[in-house]
Amino acid sequence: MDKREFLEIWYRRVWEEEDLSAISEMFQPDTLARGLVDGAHVGPEEFEAFAGAMLQLVGNAKICIERFIEQGDWLAAVVSIKAEDRNTAKPVAITGQTFAKVIDGVLVESYNHLDSIGFYEQLGLMPENSFEICLMGETIG
Q1: Does residue 96 contact residue 112 with C-beta atoms inside 8 Å?
Q2: Closest CA to 58 of 118, 99, 133, 10
Q3: Burial of 114 per CB tally in 10 Å (0-12, 13-18, 19+)
Q4: For the segment 75-120, what is each residue's pLDDT rounded down to a tens digit?
Q5: What is the Cα–Cα distance from 53 to 73, expressed in whole angstroms?
Q6: Where is 110: in which H helix or E strand?
Q7: What ranges do the domains of the chain cover?
Q8: pTM score, two decimals?
Q9: Fold of the domain built from segment(s) 3-135
């Protein structure tokens, strides 16, 4: 399987089908995902908890790989994510990026970024325009 196919399967199984067992299958046991939680490097068990918490907030996710490149064992992708708020069924749309090392069909290293502010704003968990408010030096809350 090539790296793009690996990534497509990962997004489909974990986020679209909500199959958290895919994490332990597709992560090497000592894999650390970086960038999802500030200052933390999460392994398969922590990533499963993270994904489970995210999936309690949203469902019906669809992930589209907008840009993709691979070199050797590494892949990089920019993705668009569309989902629905589980409480209101309102649409949620954000972007994300991943930079990962995949060897023999298993994720061994990962660096990630998601538009977390936009995500939480759309869920109503942060005020609208939170980024702009913070950029002006104002405190939220």
Answers
A1: yes
A2: 118
A3: middle
A4: 999 999 999 999 999 999 999 999 999 999 999 999 999 999 999 9
A5: 30
A6: strand 106-114
A7: 3-135
A8: 0.90
A9: Nuclear Transport Factor 2; Chain: A, (3.10.450)
